[in-house]
Specification:
35% strand, alpha+beta, single chain, 8 strands, 23% helix, Jelly Rolls, 194 residues, disordered N terminus
Length: 194
């Protein structure tokens, strides 16, 4: 009987430990990061794209990012036609003072990471105060040091040089209250190499 109790106690301890570990692992912290730079770039043909850069991604370094969303604050105007907004991760550094449709890019209109993109749609006849885009994969790569934190490029579908027209730019507004919202957990010691 003693052996059965010990096994039962060991099993109960294992179950309790697993439950505790699961509860700890599922608890995530939330961080909101303002967008420091927003810059509109325009092609010679008038195609318009928007570049956005978070203020400081250093707070996410060494963290396990579980979810990240780019929350765009819109003007609240009503869309006259359907608007598709696509977000891409930027693969090259840029600064607000000198960036243009051609500089500093290898590809006109902005160098982007090909594996990462998300799309959100604002339906015709609707108005919205915010538009949310999933950027988890890209922010996770930043936090883990796999990619440089160069920000985001907003464009329309498809990405053939097309950009936002004047109505869409007005609908998007100044994007002044836009932010990056990330949920994260501390990186496990094993993953950090300890």
């Amino acid at each position: 009987m003693t052996k059965i109790r010990r096994r039962t106690n060991a099993a109960a301890l294992l179950v309790l430990s697993t439950l505790t570990l699961t509860a700890t692992a599922s608890a995530a912290n939330r961080t909101e990061i303002a967008l420091e730079d927003a810059r509109v770039i325009v092609s010679p043909e008038g195609a318009t794209r928007i570049l956005l850069k978070p203020t400081d991604l250093g707070v996410l370094e060494g963290r396990l990012v579980t979810d990240a969303r780019l929350e765009l604050e819109l003007s609240g105007s009503t869309a006259t036609e359907e608007l598709h907004v696509r977000v891409h991760g930027v693969s090259r550094g840029w600064d607000t003072a000198s960036v243009s449709w051609t500089y500093p890019w290898e590809r006109e209109g902005g160098d982007t990471v090909t594996f990462f993109q998300d799309t959100a749609t604002l339906r015709a006849g609707r108005s919205a105060d915010t538009l949310s885009l999933d950027v988890s994969q890209f922010v996770r790569a930043w936090a883990e040091g796999e990619l440089g934190p160069h920000g985001f490029l907003l464009t329309t579908i498809p990405l053939r040089g097309d950009g936002f027209d004047g109505d869409a730019v007005e609908l998007l507004g100044a994007l002044g209250g836009s932010k990056l919202v990330a949920h994260w957990r501390p990186m496990p010691a094993v993953a950090r190499g300890e």
